[in-house]
Specification:
Radius of gyration: 21 Å
Number of helices: 7
Distance between the termini: 50 Å
CATH topology of the largest domain: Rossmann fold
Helix content: 10-25%
CATH class of the largest domain: Alpha Beta
Shape: globular
CATH architecture of the largest domain: 3-Layer(aba) Sandwich
Oligomer: single chain
Number of strands: 21
Number of domains: 2
Length: about 350
């Protein structure tokens, strides 16, 4: 794609689609789906040095290497323009509002998110492309989606018979694992980790993200995934990821059911009362703890979703060998619900 001016400089933009949005980015994001699309979101890149022409970044394959920049005539904005000096040494910092957000990660850099349509990146000196991408596709995109008025759930979502089935739960509770188990039985994964929900026009819908899922070696072995294809999403946290071999439509999918995962002795599925459902949806929203000033509107969105979709508590033992059985239980439950 042609270079685009930003503050007197030009940047080569890559074109992608993810979360139902056309994304033009100065940073290569191989997790997203390449597509020549109209621009809904622009991702700009500032360098800490000078450059001529387009900003250059290391190739996507150059994992572990620092971002490479050329030379420019005018100085760029710096992290210290947004973060006080006494805060820069902290691991992370946030300055958040519904219209503008500043996300600072010490070993990665600063992300300025504005209006739900622009992200500016100021890399840290030691930043690597993989660190920047990891922040972009997770927390940063979640904040941008929030700015666009969406309810952003911390969830894994699977397409079962044309409807989105959402799995909520605490970190490590097995959201990605059950999605992966359903995938082995022929169901498509819609999104993992960040699930943006639209509540417009009387129907709750979720936007697909990109064909990748968090998958541990233990789960991959139990479910028969090729362990050689696992790659580290977050090397420091030892979080493996698996690139799914599936086409991912970017059409929004109506939500037909939501499950809240909990550990227990028996496999069981029980409906939640409306009040319980609202609290669980709020608790498992990606940004609930960050935007305290927006609690009322956030709870209203959760109530709207709980009124539109059935919410169940899905209890199961913490036993990886039961994953295939758990996936069959969910599929059968969906079949029964579809007949009611």
């Amino acid at each position: 794609m042609d270079c685009k001016a930003l503050g007197g400089k030009k940047q080569k933009l890559f074109s992608y689609v993810a979360y139902g949005l056309g994304i033009h980015s100065a940073v290569p994001i191989p997790e997203f789906i390449p597509a020549e699309v109209e621009c809904d979101v622009t991702i700009h890149l500032e360098s800490n040095v000078y450059s001529t022409g387009c900003v250059r970044v290391a190739s996507a394959e150059a994992e572990g290497h620092a971002l490479a920049f050329g030379q420019t005539r005018t100085p760029n904005r710096k992290i210290s323009d947004y973060i006080p000096k006494e805060v820069i040494q902290q691991p992370m910092a946030f300055q958040l509002s519904p219209e503008e957000a500043v996300i600072y990660l010490k070993d990665t850099g600063l992300f300025l998110v504005q209006g739900g349509n622009m992200i500016m990146i100021i890399p840290a000196a030691e930043a690597t492309l993989s660190r920047i991408r990891m922040a972009l596709v997770g927390t940063v995109m979640a904040i941008l989606l929030y700015q666009r008025g969406l309810l952003v759930l911390h969830a894994s979502v699977v397409n079962i018979n044309g409807g989105a089935v959402v799995f909520l739960g605490n970190s490590g509770e097995g959201k990605s694992s059950i999605a992966a188990a359903l995938h082995t039985q022929g169901y498509r994964i819609i999104t993992d980790d960040v699930a943006p929900v639209s509540l417009n026009q009387g129907t709750a819908k979720v936007a697909p993200s990109f064909p990748q899922i968090k998958l541990s070696q233990e789960v991959a072995k139990v479910l028969g995934y090729d362990q050689d294809k696992l790659g580290l999403l977050v090397p420091k946290l030892n979080k493996p990821g698996y690139e799914l071999n599936q086409d991912l439509t970017q059409a929004l999918l109506p939500i037909r059911c939501i499950y809240v995962l909990v550990s227990g002795l028996q496999l069981s599925i029980k409906p939640l009362k409306l009040e319980e459902a609202v609290m669980e949806l709020s608790r498992h929203s990606r940004l609930n703890s960050l935007f305290d000033s927006e609690k009322a509107s956030h709870l209203l969105q959760c109530a709207q979703l709980a009124n539109k979709c059935s919410v169940y508590r899905l209890q199961r033992p913490r036993n990886l060998a039961l994953l295939p059985e758990l996936a069959r239980l969910v599929a059968e439950h969906q079949f029964i619900q579809g007949k009611m």
